[in-house]
Amino acid sequence: MTDLVLGIDVGSSRIKALLVDADGLDVGTAAVPTPFTSGAGGSGSEVTVAALDQALSEALERLGGLRERVAGVGIAGMAESGAPLDRSGDALAPILAWHDRRGGDVAQRLSERFGADLNERIGQQLRGVSSVAKLGWLTEHGVVGVERWLGVPELGLHALTGAEATELSLAARTGCWDVGRAEWIGDVAEAAGFGLGVFPEVLPAGRAMGRVTPGAATRFRIPTGAPVTIAGHDHLAGLVGSGADPLDLGNSVGTAETVIGRSPSLPDMTAALERKLAVTVFPGGDGWAVLASAARSGLALSSAAAALGRSEPQLDQLSVGASLLDAPGLRDSLDRRDPPLLPEGEPGDVWHTLLDQLAALTADAAVRVVRVVGARRRLVVFGGGAASRPWLAAKARLAPLPVWRVTAPEAVARGAAIYGGVAAGWWASPAAAPRPPLEPA
């Protein structure tokens, strides 16, 4: 009996796996930490392909025998992060975390060479975190013989099926994909030190990109032949899994916090870039999306909780009825993506102040997105931050439109499962899948 679909979310902090039935109900869920460590000499954050593969295996193992009922699989995850492989498919270097900055010099050199025209084509300011910058950095530092670059979700597809493919929304985050013309930009890759042949075929989310091999079926206990699809960039897959309407804004809250607005037509690229927004392709090629980075909220909160000596749920409780503190430098530290510069005061007041500042950044991001995609009716919060009532209250107080939250957990994994269901023929499109209920904040 194959009456479940499996969604996998490979995130910066955790790998999540979710089983969903045809009615959209959660049947099983599991999670393990993503085993990132500091790089050589304390530089950046990285994980070996073998360690990531083992963590994925452990997450699926925790689902138990329910795995044997899977009809289709969808895999979403962080963009920009991947590994170079040789001709035999062996990894030549560790996977650099999406936020790793070691590609900064490469990005600067490419920006100087190609200018603002490149940003208009790729839909964003080229940054050191992009795939092209990471791979360029690796080739500059002795990695040779690169035959293929597979991002994190693509590595999951390869582990399950042996197939090599990527998805439109992930190609759009590499730094050398033209988001308007849907084509690679070869001279950017060559200037970074490699050829476009390293990238696999680009396919839309929801298409079966491979099928579970007998070997993978034995290892992962997923039925042989089950179709597997890449569900795309995690923020966008989460918007699908959240139950948000296309006329809503999404607020994805994890390690990084992003505000998302969908658009059926290519947005005004100049207007988006002027507002420090990114334009990307929606999974499956179903229009475009405009992304605004609000803050690295998850990192900021975990750093603050450690400094305050309390857990985040404890600090949420302490912040109820707390006072706002004068916090010079806090907003600037959040803008710089540095550890938050916390004010002096009682832990509850400090936490309340931090949540307020983060909510203000979210509100600003929402305003910028609306100015490009047009008016929207709600801001739908999903991800880990959707569980924090004080944080939701701060967002509701400051946001320019009503704030709602998803009630079902693991929106990204749910979105991946929905695309897995499309690949399995359960639903004609993600819009035909059951949606989880939403509630006002």
Considering the chains and any ligands shown, give keywords for the structure.
441 residues; alpha+beta; Nucleotidyltransferase, domain 5; 2 domains; 22 strands; 36% helix; globular
Explain the overall architecture.
This protein has helices at residues 49-61, 104-114, 116-122, 131-140, 152-161, 168-171, 186-192, 214-220, 234-242, 269-274, 297-308, 312-319, 330-335, 347-373, 389-398, 411-423; strands at 4-10, 14-21, 26-33, 37-38, 45-47, 70-77, 82-85, 95-96, 148-151, 165-167, 177-178, 183-184, 201-203, 210-211, 227-233, 249-253, 257-263, 278-281, 288-295, 379-383, 403-406, 438-440. The chain has 441 residues and is an alpha+beta fold. It is globular, with a radius of gyration of 21 Å. The strands form six sheets. A seven-stranded mixed sheet has the order 18-19-17-16-20-21-22, with helices on both faces. A six-stranded mixed sheet has the order 3-2-1-6-15-14. Strands 4-5-8 form a three-stranded antiparallel sheet. The mean pLDDT is 95. Helix 2 crosses helix 4 (131-140) and helix 9 (234-242) packs across helix 16. It contains 16 helices and 22 strands. The longest helix has 27 residues, at 347-373. It folds into two domains: 4-236 and 410-434, ATPase, nucleotide binding domain (Nucleotidyltransferase, domain 5, 2-Layer Sandwich); 245-405, Nucleotidyltransferase, domain 5.
